[in-house]
Amino acid sequence: MRAAWNRAGSKTIAVALAVLVTAALLLASGASPIESFRLIWQGSVGSGPKAADTLMAWVPLVLAASGLVVTFAAGLWNIGVEGQVVMGAIAASWVAREFHAPSAAVITVALIAGIIGGLLWGLFAGVLRVYGKVNEIFGGLGLDFVATGLVVYLVIGPWKRAGIASTSGTDPFPKEAWLPTVGDKLAPIAIVLAVLAVIAVYFLMRGTFFGLRLKAVGANPASAYIIGLSTSRYLLSAMAICGGLAGLGGAVQAIGFQHKLVPAISGGYGFLAILVVLLAGFRASLIAPIAFFFVMISVGGTQLSLRLGLNSSLGGVVQGTLVLLTVLVGGWQVRRARQRVRLEAEG
Amino acid sequence: MSLELRDIHKHFGRVRANDGVTLRVEAGELHGLLGENGAGKSTLMKVLSGFIEPDSGTISLDETTLQMRSPRDAIAAGIGMLHQDPLVFLPFSVLDNFLLGSPPIDRDSARGELDRLAADFGFSFDPDAPARTLTVGERQQLEIVRLLWLGAKVLILDEPTTGISATQQSLLFEALRTLAGQGMIVIFVSHKLEEIEVLCDRVTVMRRGRTVGEATLPVAIDTLVEMMFGEAVAVTGRPPGVRGGPALRLDGIAADDRLTRLEDLTLEVRAGEVLGLAGLEGSGQRTLLRACAGLLATTAGTIEVGDRDVTKRDYHQRLAAGVHYLPAGRLEEGLIRGLTITEHFQLASGSNRFLVPWADARGDAEKRIAKHSIKGASDTTAEALSGGNQQRLLLAMVPPDVKVLLMEHPTRGLDIASADWVWGQLIQRVEAGTAVVFASADLDELLRYSDRIVVFFAGRVFKMLDASTADADQLGHLIGGRDVA
After folding, report:
1. For helices A81-98 and A48-73, what crossing angle results, to 10°?
2. Which domains, and CATH codes, for chain B?
3. How far apart are CA A257 and CA A179, in angstroms?
């Protein structure tokens, strides 16, 4: 109980501090904080189309973040998640471009291809870690660059638009490959997939032997091995699951939102998802609302540059500040708790 | 000059690493600090060198009380510590390492100082060579020279002979004698009797976080052994159980874990037998246990469990064959911080189901908590349990029908009630036909519970004893490498 209150308390303190820091930043840039916050709200959920944009950005972020809950549980820093989103998008784009069939079949195959693309990329980093002794942070970062390089190569090379090679992206996919939408942008299938992913990961970590063993391997690989668990199997599984979910996020981004492959197809959602999971304290239950808050800032933040002439990177600064302060407040609480334990031991 | 530590207390959670230690060393003295691993020597020396702050107690040098909050304060007061693994920055050159932490000085004069100090002790370095090309012994020499140059008047050496050659050891001992001759205080920490005997003038013995005795050398080795391991208690042997066929057979095995090398070891343990492994820490007991468990590859010989050859089988396959291993580090290689007792039981169950039956799991855990008298609830996490209860949980996680149970220090750090309980459990298992092989530093425990005792010395089996006819005195001598029989 006390722990739960402490957690809630630390989140509140961190959010309050982040709001203050952001307000100070805005004031320093000569903008009114109140007006800015209003613009962010308006620009993200103020109208139907805006809300659709926000929700469609929420989907890949939630998918990648759900995957990261699994890798963090296994004690892995899967920085390669960004590349896994990209590889999912590439695989889905390939299906969307090359596979001609009824719409339902194309979409299904493209989504599965996205999962497989991301899964293999995640597994690649996992194999490097388990068998090549390459730390997953470095392996993942390297694979991120490879994936990003590959998407640029495809867009201006083999998959370039007829006649012109442009970084604005490939030709739009055939309409059969587009996720069906309600209104202009909102693809209900994408939302359903994201919601299912969060529920599945929550359930996996809470209810299954797999989740329990994954936690054991993540918390103490040596003990887990002595107890009889095959640590490499669980590390690889975690990377595969995270890669698959991130890849699905990339696929949705490609066939559900952009409808073509663009160099910035990941939208940075892989890296952003790491921040979401840190802020969520590695728990699946908090991912949906926190991810929504983050995309509100990302999507609504563009209004700041349009209307107030502020730099568009301000949204990222706000998100980063928030995570940094949360981690800081959390660390400060741990420190205080240790001191309390020490005092009790002495007293 | 004299150094005095008075009533030093240092607790880590529930562990009393130092529990009222008092130590006095005079100038010009080569003072040995002797004790088994875990006796509290390293903690005491870390307190003395400013690495950790004591909970209470005072340190004074020349009748002046020192307030030390960091190693920097300690060296400023003239106390320098040479760690077991010398703190050398490997990519840096010898000269750069020498200059670390020094007052500003130009490199040429520093080079001169380094040469002069090295020559004093017969050390020789190439100042421009990268430190990584130095052997462990040479790194120590560099560190000693550096500490002296920084003005150390008190030099602490923590197990300095681990991993250095015999020549380097004699060079080191010669240097230490020279320093003591110049009026310095040298504190030499070791668990090796023979080194203390050869080198030191006086010795203080520590056991279970306290100083238990002091002696001027030379002294009868029995006296030191008794201080290290406690009074020899009259031993009541365990009634011999029913022996079955061979449970574990080692035939000419060799293994090397880089600290200790075992060679050509042949042993047989029968079902229902208890085999004790005695010896100073690092004499081969742990190496043997890990080789039997499949955690360390053997380079020769065969290992059989029952009548199955498991030599080529890994740890998990041996686990399936009925070989279980409980290492000494209960929270490092056994239990998992943050996970509850219920979760531990479920992990150990090896269930093939997909879902954890949480409702039943809690009830099951509560029954087993009661059965094994663990002081904790089903949702208590492993790190919140005391050492004794952690050991109870670990034992409770081992299925009842294992063939071979390998244990490292089964009762180290446990209170008497827990230790008795642990052995009660083990004896029940033994009577049901499990073979138990355990390593211990507690002579009383070895004599009381073993059928046979294997004494290790420097990686080989020094002596095999029948526990019913052996006594603590004889065992103590054998552990120190002396066969008096």
Report:
1. 120
2. 2-229 (3.40.50.300), 238-322+402-485 (3.40.50.300), 340-400 (no CATH)
3. 8
What is the structure's pLDDT at B68? 87
Q: Say which of B327, B347, B397 has its CB closest to residue A216.
A: B347
The answer to whether residue B37 scores a pLDDT higher than 80 is no
Q: What was the pLDDT predicted at A341? A: 56
Q: Using CB atoms, which residue from B55, B327, B343 is nearest to A212?
A: B343
Question: Using a CB-CB distance cutoff of 8 angstroms, which residues of chain B are in contact with residue A220?
Answer: 332, 335-337
Residue closest to B406 by CA, chosen among B379, B375, B429: B429
Pick the residue from chain A with its C-alpha nearest to B336: A220
Give dist(CA A123, CA A154) in Å, integer: 23
Looking at the domain assignment, is residue A118 inside a domain?
yes
Residue span of the structural domain in which A156 resides:
62-270
Position A346 confidence tier, pLDDT thresholds 50, 70, 90: very low
**Is the residue at A51 inside a domain?**
no
Residues of chain A contacting B346 with CB distance shorter than 8 Å? 209, 212
Q: Which of B319, B336, B355 is closest, CB to CB, to A220?
A: B336
Does A333 fall in a domain?
A: no
Q: Residue A248: what pLDDT? A: 98
Find the closest chain A residue to B398 by CA distance.
Answer: A227
Distance from CA of B88 to the nearest CA of A (A): 25
Q: Which of B347, B349, B406, B407 to mutate to test binding with chain A, by most A CBs within 10 Å of its CB?
A: B347
Candidates A209, A219, A346; nearest CB to B336:
A219
Q: How far apart are CA B253 and CA B235, in angstroms?
A: 33
**Smallest Cα distance from A209 to chain B, Å:** 5
What order of strands is seen across the sheet that includes strand B202-207?
Answer: B79-82, B154-158, B185-190, B30-34, B202-207, B210-216
Q: How many Å lie between the alpha carbon of A222 and the closest alpha carbon of chain B?
A: 5
Of A208, A226, A229, the CB nearest to B355: A208
Does residue A295 fall inside a structural domain? no
The whole-number pLDDT of residue B484 equals 61
Written as six digits, the tokens of B354 are 């997909």
**With b meaning 16 or more CB within 10 Å and e meaning fewer, what string describes B139-174?**
bbbbbbbbbbbbebbbbbbbbbbebbeeebbebbbe
Q: Is B119 on the interface with A (CB under 8 A)?
A: no
pLDDT band at B485 (very low <50, low <70, confident <90, very high): low
Give the tens place of pLDDT for each residue, B129-172: 888 888 778 888 888 888 888 889 999 998 887 767 778 888 89
* Size of chain B, expressed as the number of residues it contains: 485
- Strand duo B261-270 + B246-256: pairing: antiparallel
How do B452-457 and B460-466 pair as beta strands?
antiparallel
Q: Whole-angstrom Cα distance, residue A264 to residue A151?
A: 8
Give yes or no for B69 touching A (CB within 8 A): no
Q: Find the chain A residues whose C-beta atoms sit closer than 8 A to any C-beta of B.
A: 207-210, 212-213, 215-216, 219-220, 222-230, 345-346
Peptide bond into B218 cis (omega under 30): yes
CB distance A345 to B11 below 8 Å: yes
Where do runs of H (alpha helix) occur along B230-308? 285-293
Selection from B275, B267, B269 nearest residue B466 by Cα: B275
Which of B341, B356, B381, B395 should one mutate to test binding to chain A, selecting the residue with the greatest count of A CBs within 10 A? Answer: B356
pLDDT at B362: 93
Q: Look at residue A19 and tell me whether its pLDDT is greater than 90.
A: no
Out of A208, A220, A346, name the one closest to residue B55 (CB).
A346
ipTM above 0.90, yes or no: no
pLDDT: is B273 or A325 the higher one?
B273
Q: How many domains does chain A have?
A: 1
Does the structure show a pLDDT above 90 at B63?
no
At B122, phi and psi to the nearest 5? 75, 20
**Contact flag B332-A223 (C-beta cutoff 8 Å):** yes
